Amino acid sequence: MKPTENDVLGFIRSIPNETRQKDGLKLMEMMNKITELKPVKWGPSIVGFGSYIHTYETGRETKLPLTSFSPRKQHLVLYVLNGFENQEELLNDLGKHKTGNICLYINKLADVHQDVLEEIISSAYLKNKRYADKSKKDANS
């Protein structure tokens, strides 16, 4: 998965499901407000904000968005579960959702508490940003 030059707004507006399209626009607005970064389309279906180089324990490196989501046919998928502080407590207060690895699955935004979702996105973004900032500092040492 790599960042592309593809039109993010056009991608979201092309979603046939009206609720998913509106929720995608709302998530894009929410993540933009939190990160103060412009959205970029990653691969065929992910909307990401910012980027950093993640180094795995094996030493392999990959470029990832600091925070991102995908308005998929089945669910809205937010890539925000990175083990930030109070993650479980916030998920307990979120409303109807499912989780898997780093993914938060939501059927529609109306199913969850928006203020809790914003806190989850913000917490995940800040944790990834601290990781990215530390990695940059370590690389320059």
Q: Can you characterise this structure?
A:
The chain is of the alpha+beta class and 141 residues long. The chain has a single domain (8-140), classed as Aspartate Aminotransferase, domain 1 (Alpha-Beta Complex). The protein has helices at residues 8-13, 18-35, 87-94, 114-140; strands at 39-42, 46-49, 52-55, 61-64, 67-71, 76-79, 98-100, 103-106. Strands 1-2-5-6-8-7 form a 6-stranded antiparallel beta sheet. Strands 3-4 form a two-stranded antiparallel ribbon.
Largest sheet: 6 strands, antiparallel
Name the poorly predicted regions. Answer: none
Amino- and carboxy-terminal Cα gap: 29 Å
H/E series, N to C? HHEEEEEEHEEH
Provide the CATH topology. Aspartate Aminotransferase, domain 1
How many domain modules? 1
Task: Supply the CATH class.
Answer: Alpha Beta
Integer-rounded radius of gyration: 15 Å
Q: What is the count of β-strands?
A: 8
CATH architecture descriptor name: Alpha-Beta Complex
Mean pLDDT over the residues: 93
What characteristic shape results from the CA principal axes?
globular
Structural class: alpha+beta
In spatial order, strands of the major sheet run 1-2-5-6-8-7
The share of residues in extended strands comes to 15-25%
Helix content: 40-55%
Supply the number of helical segments. 4
